[in-house]
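Annotated sample (chain length 292).
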Amino acid sequence: MEKDLFSLINQRFPGFSKGHKLIAGYILDHYDKAAFMTAQKLGKTVGVSESTVVRFASELGCDGYPALQKGLQELMRNKLTAVQRIEVTSGQLEGDDVTERVLNMDIERIRATLDEISKEDLNRAADMIASAGTIYIMGTRSSASIAVFLNYYLSLIFPHVKLVQSATTSELFEKIMRIDSNDVMIGVSFPRYSNQTVKALTYAKNNGARVIAVTDSVSSPLADCADALLLARSDMASFVDSLVAPLSLVNALLVAVSSRCRDRVTATFERLEKVWADYDVYAKNGEKPNDL
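Output written by the structure step:
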């Protein structure tokens, strides 16, 4: 839904029927629980029928109750504290088969990402990176791992790649102060979104740089200034952020970039292979390092 779900409910609350007011009140007060309830369970909890819950979703402009539930889950992800996330997902992740459940959840996230990704945006992002003067990469907290991964591979291909690591606000802008229209800024952030990353992308956009946002939703604050929006699912698994789908998406982006710079990539890795061999970078099976 384009409009903030809570704002929409509050705006329409006075005109709701008695049953709809019960549903609305419960959602506003217990959104963390309602987001994972079926229509039948939500109706039973507040004392109305399942059909009343479905009609409530339609009255809000949703295409059925699942659409309301999805919108509530997306809105909720950036509002929950770590403690609340543990409470919300505890029922889903209990039992001896936690490994199977978590891995299957990650598989579903990749499938959902594949269904939702814009190939046009991915190709646009690859073109922007391939033609950039300097490539800036920004990701903080758990998203920093994605930023470091992206920085490692892009630095092997391009000479001017800068990883903008978490810093004070003044240090952040000192690191990106020279960004201009020849450059590209890649920002990575998932709920709960980083203010630093949003500020960095906004600054880059205001200075004429092209912006690539790797995030989870069109309602993400990173999306507002993105020239290419790359969406990947990162739904919570307890207090742990799931970065499986985002990492898979970044892999696809790197492959797309390399296909645009095939000669450069080949030359780079031919040189690297010689360096790695000359300086014993990688251990060989069955051999001990020379210094042991």
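Annotation: Strands lie at 135-139, 161-164, 184-188, 210-215, 228-231.
Annotation: The mean pLDDT is 87.
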